[in-house]
Amino acid sequence: MKPKVYITYKIPEGPLKTLNEHCEVYINPEERPLTKQELCTELKGMDGVICMLSDNIDKEVIDYLKGVKIFANYAVGYNNIDFNYAADMGIAVTNTPGVLTNATADLAWALLFSVARCIVDSDRYTREGKFKGWAPTLYLGQDITGKTLGVIGAGRIGSNFARKAKGFDMKILYHNRKPNAEFEKETGAIYVDKETLLKEADFISVHAPLTAETKHMISYNEFRLMRKNAIIINTARGPIIDEKALVEALKNKQIWGAGLDVYENEPSIEPELFDLENVVLAPHIGSATTETREKMVEIAVANILAAFRGEVPPNCVNTEYRNNINI
Ligand code: GLV
Ligand code: GLV
Question: Under 8 Å CB-to-CB from 219, ≥6 apart: which residues?
Answer without folding.
Answer: 241, 242, 245
